[in-house]
Amino acid sequence: MDIGTAARHKLRNLGHTLLLIGGMSLLLAVCSELLFGEGIWPWVFFSVAITMFTLPDIPPHWLLRLYQARQLQPQEAPLLLRLVQELSQRAGLDHSPSLYWVPSHVANAFAVGRRNHAAIAITDGLLQNLSPRELAGVLAHEISHVANNDMRLMGLADVISRLTHMMSVVGILLILISFPFMVLGITPVPFLAMLLLLIAPTLSALLQLGLSRIREFNADLEAVRITSDPEGLASALGKIDLQYGSGWQRILFPGYRETEPSLLRTHPNMQERIQRLMEIAGRPEDPGAPLTHLYDRHEKLPDNLRVTRRPKHRFTLWR
Asked: pTM above 0.85?
């Protein structure tokens, strides 16, 4: 693994994260100043911080019920849980996330919860299609999200975005109420404030999506640090990407599945992620300990863990 290239990518991701969350905060501050006057924005940020740290966490198993997920017990998948424990220790976690099995043929995985109380869900399609090396990379990616508290960070970004949208709506309503006075010339027309309040929700949403993509890049880098195997994660991402289209469709209609512009996606383009991983797969400066011996692809899950129907709910987590 090329440690120098990985460090440069990580520093760039950190800079982008600070820039995006700072941009969202600045946008919220400007909207609050327009509505309530000068000096109000510190109280807005203070309220947001208090809310984020005092609200009780939603138990991960509540969310995973939406996907008909079932927690894997040590006697059901001992090797798989051993792999999760080893990756968690390498990531510096005091507690390993719980592991849940999702009855879906779609190859996917996601993490929910927070650093000290998290869960990772993996689909049956992921277990059936990935090799132990690839599965270790995907699990390391999700564990990196947990170790970096990305769920809390994205929750903060969501609160800021929702507050910005709420202030935008309130501001526009106040302007509409004052419109007769503007027509009569009693009050001036705040063209700049109107324009900012109109575009603020869209700008905040775009910044939030950009932050989500940056955290995905950062989780890829952290996964490489944990496993010292960028090729394993890159191979897994390639397999996951292939499930969204057959070979001839990709040749004849490149990008036909990419219905959303890149700015409107929660996840980066898969090929870009693979390219970044291969850039840091240079010389083996830090080979680390192998992980493939911790998990056997042919480990048998209990007979009741079989896909009988797809989950009823399909959210952005499945992308």
From this structure: no
